[in-house]
Amino acid sequence: MSTEYEPVIGLEIHVQLATRTKMFCGCDLSFGDPPNTHTCPVCLGLPGTLPVLNARAVHFGVLIGLALGSQIAERSLFHRKNYFYPDLPKGYQISQYDVPLCSGGSLGEVCIHRVHLEEDAAKLVHVGESGRIHGSDRSVVDFNRGGTPLVEIVTEPDLHAPDQAREWLTLLRATLKRLGVSDVNMDEGSLRCDANVSVRPVGSQQLGTKTELKNMNSFRYLERGVRAEIERQIGLLQSGEAVAQETLHFDPASDRLTPLRSKEEAHDYRYFPEPDLVPLVVTGEMHAAAQADLAELPAARAKRFEQQLGLAPDRARELAFRTELGDYYERALAADGHDPVTVANWIPQLVERIGSDADPAQSKVTPEALATLAGMVSAKEVARDAARDVLTRLVAEGGDPRTIVEERGLGSLTADDGGLTEIIDRAIAADPAAAEQVRQGNMRAVGPLVGFVMKETKGRADGGEVTRLIRERVG
Ligand code: ADP
Ligand code: ZN
Ligand code: MG
Fold first, then answer.
1. Ligand 1 in contact with 11 (CB < 6 A)?
2. CA torsion, ordered 377, 380, 385, 390, to nearest 10 deg
3. Do both 205 and 316 map to the same domain?
4. Is residue 396 domain-shared with residue 327, that is, in the same domain?
5. Is the Cα torsion angle 169, 174, 177, 183 positive or negative in sign?
6. Ligand 1 site, residue 157, Cβ cutoff 6 A
7. Ligand 1 pocket mutation, candidates 96, 155, 210, 262, criterion most atoms within 8 A of CB
8. Would you state the torsion angle of the CA atoms of residues 100, 102, 104, 105, taken in this order, to the nearest 10 degrees?
9. Residue with CA at minimum distance from ligand 1 atom 17
């Protein structure tokens, strides 16, 4: 019998903080500005310069720690992490080592190991002979990014499936966004994720040898890369081979994983205390200031949507884990006290029409309009199919759903409308066999009759109402 394996995954996430200036100097943060336009002697690592810690970055670090329920160290230390690379002009990165700003905590089902502050390296750009990026004949350095404030969040190895890792990173991203501490834009590198992966026989308490997948910088790649690596490791173990502890690069084009470096080649960073910075002391005042900035976080919001508004757990998460959707939803609810579940069900319809990454607040559909439309459907003033058309029109042109329904004659056809009963009679006449079955109580036969009516009314009739009327009329 073949052994079953359980995947074990831990994530390390780097978050660029949305401060105005860099971690240890007064240079502006910039993304997309011309290269090397935001530099100074400090972030270029020139001799004789001294770092000055960015208070806002500390505030954000404490805020993240509080949001994750971490222990905030009253006194934490900065260290120098030494390595030689062209993106690091000082020859070391200032980071935190044995005494980080935050320890412990959790988010959802995942425990947090630690959260610490550090600075980002500069950006290496590989340039081909043609001057085009890629093709890498030479590399050039853009120091704009060097010294950007980072928070590194390290989880415990508490994740056990690729899609779970993806979902959890979505929650973390939403949480950071809600806190306002980062742009959390994975394309632009303000949120970067490394995944540590191992497998072990189901039931075993011991951790297997892990590999580290570097820079899984989209939710999709994270899920796919981790899945491919789990399969690779299980394949190795099943054929009697061992997993080597190494760092891997995932190529999304081929789904292949290639080694970047092995354990033997791992850096020895020769950490030592940063002599130019005093220990970081978080005062009661700083703690209180962060506490005051804590907003309702996505996990709590999802719970509230579920428990107080009655949304299904999936829908609650869908709305709460994307702050802009949750905000839009709550504005729609405030506009019109309709059934929260019905209004919630219309948000995905809207998202489908505006594009999955778009912010509905930027669309032509106001929350009030969406709430009105949902209410009209609930009140059976407009049938669901017709309402979908109205929404499509709202996305294109904006406006008021009531006006659109009136102007275009999309209002529901009901029993009072002679037109509807006439169409139902035609449906019955067109398919007497189905009508007879319905008469005998076989409700499955009603489908084609309802379909006929829907087609004739162009979706303006309510399905339930049509079914009721057909039963009535077949006698
Ligand atoms: P390293 O010393 O290699 O940096 P750490 O113990 O600091 O390893 O852990 C780094 C990350 O790897 C953490 O997110 C942790 O949860 C995860 N991790 C550690 N051991 C394993 C393992 N055996 N399988 C999967 N993830 C692991
Ligand atoms: Zn600078
Ligand atoms: Mg580590």
1. yes
2. -50
3. no
4. yes
5. positive
6. yes
7. 210
8. -160
9. 10
Encoded amino acid at 352, one letter: E
The first and second tokens of residue 246, run together, are: 């190494």
At 386, is the pLDDT very low, low, confident or very high (cuts 50, 70, 90)? confident
pLDDT band at 261 (very low <50, low <70, confident <90, very high): confident
Give the number of the atom of ligand 1 that is nearest the alpha carbon of residue 207: 23
Do the domain assignments include residue 173? Answer: yes
The tokens describing 426, both together, are: 């035609």
Our answer on whether the CB atom of 211 is closer than 6 Å to any ligand 1 atom is no
pLDDT tens digits, 140-149: 999 999 999 9
**345 and 440 share one domain:** no
Taking CA atoms only, the protein residue closest to ligand 1 atom 13 is 10
Q: Which two tokens stand for residue 167?
A: 């979902």
199 lines ligand 1 (CB under 6 A): no
Q: Is residue 413 part of a domain?
A: no
Find tokens 């009531």 and name the residue. Answer: 402
Q: 304: domain range?
A: 298-407
Return d(Cα 273, Cα 251) in angstroms, integer.
37
Q: Secondary structure of the chain: what % helix, strand, coil (to 5)?
A: 40, 20, 40
List C-alpha distances in Å: 215 to 44, 208, 227. Answer: 25, 22, 15
| Phi and psi, residue 408, nearest 5° | -100, 5
Report the amino acid identity of residue 429. A
Give tens-digit pLDDT for 265-304: 778 999 999 999 999 999 999 999 999 999 899 999 999 9
